[in-house]
UniProtKB/TrEMBL annotation:
Family: Belongs to the pyruvate kinase family.
InterPro entries, A to Z: Pyr_Knase, Pyrv/PenolPyrv_kinase-like_dom, Pyrv_kinase-like_dom_sf, Pyrv_Knase-like_insert_dom_sf, Pyrv_Knase_AS, Pyrv_Knase_brl, Pyrv_Knase_C, Pyrv_Knase_C_sf
Cell location: Plastid, Chloroplast
Gene3D superfamilies attached to this UniProt entry: Phosphoenolpyruvate-binding domains (3.20.20.60), PK beta-barrel domain-like (2.40.33.10), Pyruvate kinase, C-terminal domain (3.40.1380.20)
GO cellular component terms given for this protein: chloroplast stroma
GO molecular function, one term: magnesium ion binding
Enzyme superclass (EC): transferase
Superkingdom of this protein's organism: Eukaryota
Protein source organism: Dipteronia dyeriana
Protein name: Pyruvate kinase
Amino acid sequence: MSQSLHLFSPSSSSVALPKQYLRFTPSVSTSNRRFPVTSFPRRCCFSVRASASASSDPKVLETENGKPEILPHVTASPEPAAVSSDSASIEVDAVTEVELKENGFRSTRRTKLVCTIGPATCGFEQLEALAVGGMNVARINMCHGDREWHKAVIERVRRLNEEKGYAVAIMMDTEGSEIHMGDFGGAPSAKAEDGEIWTFTVRALGSSRPERTINVNYDGFAEDVTIGDELLVDGGMVRFEVIEKIGPDVKCRCTDPGLLLPRANLTFWRDGSLVRERNAMLPTISAKDWLDIDFGIAEGVDFIAISFVKSAEVINHLKSYIAARSCDSDISVIAKIESIDSLKNLEEIIQASDGAMVARGDLGAQIPLEQVPSAQQRIVQVCRQLNKPVIVASQLLESMIEYPTPTRAEVADVSEAVRQRADALMLSGESAMGQFPEKALAVLRSVSVRIEKWWREEKRHEAMELPDIGSSFSDSISEEICTSAAKMANNLGVDALFVYTKNGHMASLLSRCRPDCPIFAFTTTTSVRRRLNLQWGLIPFRLSFSDDMESNLNKTFSLLKARGMIKSGDLIIAVSDMLQSIQVMIVP
Ligand SMILES: Nc1ncnc2c1ncn2[C@@H]1O[C@H](COP(=O)(O)OP(=O)(O)O)[C@@H](O)[C@H]1O
Ligand SMILES: C=C(OP(=O)(O)O)C(=O)O
Ligand SMILES: [K+]
Ligand SMILES: [Mg+2]
């Protein structure tokens, strides 16, 4: 296998790169670009190739029906008609299209947005409003609702994608083996007052539900609990003290009053520390979770998020289960980091997973609250290093469940997650059952865009060392190409990075570098396109393409120009995982 660095002119003959293009001396300073593009050769292309395969005729493209198609040369100004029926074959959603046309490349949002779907947002029009507002991933939480309800939501999101061109991915979040309360027989909530005595029981409660009595889903509860234990609802939103045990019933006095919500999480504290043996005894994936996972596989969800992950083992197990059950096995597994064990085994869990979620709700109930910010920072950093997408979740805009505007502290929290360069931010109750789901999404959107812009302007490039992660020589080449391409893109002030990727790997390697410009990720399947929608800075397009980069670029330029999404003179850098090449080009 030969390794060669080629530099070729438009006629493809090898020439040396003129010195001034190597040093990138700035001549004119425009807004973002350090030199005028007119001083650049029309097409400057250098490729790193892992194999010495002979390049095919650059002007012939295999069409979908297998017939060679002659494309106009890149320096010509191709009309949309020139690429025949293929012009309809690029898929991008209307929101991205408008955003690119109106605001230009630079101001597109890089941080992705996940919305939990619940009663406030499950209708088709409500889902569409969220898609218009920038939702990249719809999350369904199997803690709530039944499978019929979730199935209907999945169908609506799929219809939205098909009819309107969105690539909204679906994330199914398992209930997990947490200890939680039951519901209140239909009542939306219950108020616990200071000093009141409540009964927590493992008995099944029929329709004649006694007053101030709550079901607990953990059979060992009454045996395990000790008089004097503290019982925290939702990490401390309401607090009780255990005062008496009578068979399956545990009497508790309310010490911190508040609102009890159906199926709220319960944790137990003794002498100031969390009693972990409780849910440590429960399996990470419960029998009900396995049924939900089967449901998710059958419905073809894009992501399955696993609650209360303790070790890498469960992730590996689930991944082989999915691989054995779904033939193309393109469901990504997201590890929710929300327990002490998951922090202990963080690196190995993230290495085994396809992504992670900083599930601050439960995490904040398991570790002291003041440790949550540093845990968040560490999780985000480990994910970035290991090239796994990371979602920051829970209470980002909690007050917006009730109010149309966030607190300043919430805005600061969202800003911090954006500044840490997390891939995605997640809404929970704000979008599931809040009064202002679209407004909450708009806040995440505007804060993200503003903080990203500020970061670029200040040029606060973090000096994060990104370790080599490739497990093969070819992987290492891809990594080097992406690191170099991202660096070049920043130094040259290019308008966009283009990546042609079949399985999405090159796109994620580029995203990992967090370059200044957006990354247009072209991929051949709609499922990869949806999955890329979770990753920082990627604008995913579906496009059929070949191994011939010149044809691919010609085709992409004419398709995007026809839709007004790029224009002549735009400077781009293209990389691909077929050729392992880097090309610097000015859109003709
Ligand atoms: N599918 C659903 N059906 C009914 N209510 C839901 C649903 N999904 C979410 N919710 C409501 O939104 C709240 C916030 O959602 P989330 O954070 O995902 O759950 P949890 O509070 O259980 O951690 C839930 O407590 C619940 O009241
Ligand atoms: C996202 C979380 O998980 P869930 O909403 O399923 O409890 C969390 O605990 O923060
Ligand atoms: K869950
Ligand atoms: Mg949780």
